[in-house]
Structure formats: structure tokens, C-alpha cells
Design a protein that fits this description.
homotetramer; 106 residues; mainly alpha; Helix Hairpins; 5 helices; globular
């Protein structure tokens, strides 16, 4: 499934439940923020080293995947209601970062 | 550019700058959280109605696209270092949500 | 109970459980971030007008108080481990804001 | 300056600028979230050990104090518009945590 297909599926999901009325950019930004908070909480007491192997524990892996998914889904919906092409925005930002942080000559 | 291509480009970007050492899941979760904070701040004083047309102002639209991109790029990197397939996780979550929130019969 | 007394009580709480080892500024910043995410989530689908009367519902009021408390407690602990006087920092910031945003003459 | 005095000063500050109209709980929760994002960003690339001494650098210390203050000020305003006594809520939560996480007998 591509990001475009996820966007379409989320549109249908919201339309079928008459939830589009709740999906203003303001509300979706808050929902995104809430899900990122839940994701962050999964790593808060781990050392950086423990965080690297966090998915080795199946229960924790399932929670992490679930929260990563929630973040992705709200991000896709937020970009969609704003009319922003998320992949194009991401590509443009990578290009800006490549100029902003040049590679040191070795 | 697909999400897979963005992931590859971000891997190359980090490797070329020797930044992989900083990209633990713990650090990337914090970076994601910081960017979502910046994104949220763009909508904090807008009414829901104003947020719907937020991208009509070109300056604000550029800032919003920039922050959406930052969120996407850290999300992709976080999933990558954790070995999570972001699109598969998103698809699985949509499927769970479709079961969890059945459409009311009309 | 004053903010100073809350800080003392939190120090005792952590010491009695040998949790001080987890209370690095980095970890506490993440914990604070997670709690703010939970607090934000309580308001995400409310209109601004509904948010004004959110505490009229006793169940929601209890959740809001609980999350506000969590945010306060992590904020106090974070300032404490960093050696920052939270009230002095707040007072200094108000003074800066009063200069930065002068009142319009009427 | 006590937390009560900070609350009074913030009320006057908002009233003098006619900003009370923007201070719905929904908006203030977003503002709080944005400030916590900025605070988190100050620690994102630090190791836990580096975060412990983060305030030893005067420039970084000033930024950290500034962000801690911003978080405190929005938290106080959010509790205020909701009619929640922040210190009482914090004290009640500590009491619940003391019951929830009993100290192990040694």
C-alpha cells in the first residue's frame, strides 16, 4: 500500500462515519500531537542503547508499531485537509537540508 | 518520490554526515516531538475555521509545508532505525480501526 | 501546598523508590512531553467553545485535573534536576514579555 | 513570587492586551504543547549524561530557563481558564502515586 492509497482509505473511512466535520487542521494537529506524546512515552525511561533494541520485545514492538501508525495516519490526514503533497514537501525539505548541511570534505 | 525513496535518501544523508550515531530511537522520538510542537504552534491561535484556510496565505503555507516535511522525515527515520515498515503498520492500523469503529447502518 | 513543598515531596517520592537514576533531564523532558500529549488529546475534538466548559462534565474534569497535575509534577522535577528556580524563571519571562509586547495606548 | 502571584500577573497581562479572547483551553493546550516541543528539542541530541550538565553552558542554560518558563506560564493559564487549582491537583496526584507505587520493604 502506498502513501496515496493510505490517504484514499482514510478519506473513505472518515466519510463513511461522517467524521470529516471534526477533521479541521487545528483538530488534526492536536490529534497528531497527542499520538506523538504516546509514542514518546514508550521511550522515556529507556536508555538510548535500550531504545535501539526496543522492538526485540514483542509486546513493546506491537505498541511501537501501533503508535507509529497512529502518527502516520494523522499526519497524512492533516496534510490532506491542508492540500499539501506530503511526499513532495518531504523531498523539497531533504534538498534544502542537503544544501544547508554540506558534507565535509574528507 | 515514494516513501521508500525518501527513506533511502535520508539514510544516505545521515551516513554522509556521520550522523547515524545520533539517530537512536530515543533521540529521533524527541526530534519528532519537537517538530510536531512547531507544527502545532502554527495553528494554536487560529480558530478551527481559520485553520481550514491556513494555507491560503503563502507565507504561512510555506511554514506549514516545512513543518509537515520535518515531521514526515523524522517519522520515516524513526521507523527505519526501529526496523518498522511504516506503510504496513499504517495499513494494519486502518484495518483495526475499521473493525473497532463500525459504520452505523443508515 | 506550595510549589516548593511539591518539589520536596517529589524528591522524597523518587528517593524512596530509588527512581532518581531515571530522572535525567532528557528522560524527564520526554515524560513531560508524553503527559502534555495526553492533556492535549482531551481537547482535540472539542470546539474552542466546548473546551471552555470542558470541566462541567465531572468525568472529563477529573481527567483534565489528573493530566494537568502530571504535567506540573514532571515540570517541577525537570526544573529541579536542572537546578532551575521555576518561579523565578516564570517571573523573569513575564517581565520580558511585558517589555516585548507593550500595551497599546488607548 | 508564588504561583498565585504568577497567575494574577498573567491575568493582568492578558486583560491589558485584550488577549483573553484567544485563551480558550483548546488554544492554551496547543500553546503548551508547542512550548514543550521547543523544550524537548533542547535535549534531543544530548546523551542522558550530557543532559544532566546541560545548564553548565550559560547560553544553553538561558534557553532552557526560557522554555521552562514558557511551559509554566501556559500551564498556569490553562489551569486558570479551566478553574483548576493546579497546586491542589498536583498534591492530590502525589498522594495517588504514593498509594499506587508503594515503597518496597527493605
Amino acid at each position: 500500500m502506498s502513501l496515496d492509497e493510505i490517504r484514499s482509505r482514510l478519506r473513505q473511512f472518515a466519510a463513511a462515519r461522517d467524521w470529516e466535520q471534526f477533521h479541521t487542521p487545528k483538530n488534526l494537529a492536536m490529534a497528531l500531537s497527542g499520538e506523538v506524546g504516546e509514542l514518546t512515552a514508550l521511550f522515556q525511561w529507556l536508555t538510548p542503547e535500550q531504545s535501539v533494541v526496543a522492538t526485540h520485545d514483542p509486546d513493546r514492538a506491537a505498541k511501537i508499531e501501533d503508535e507509529l501508525a497512529d502518527v502516520l495516519l494523522y499526519l497524512v490526514q492533516l496534510a490532506d485537509v491542508l492540500g499539501v503533497d506530503l511526499l513532495a514537501a518531504g523531498e523539497a525539505k531533504i534538498a534544502r537540508n542537503e544544501t544547508r548541511f554540506p558534507v565535509s570534505p574528507s
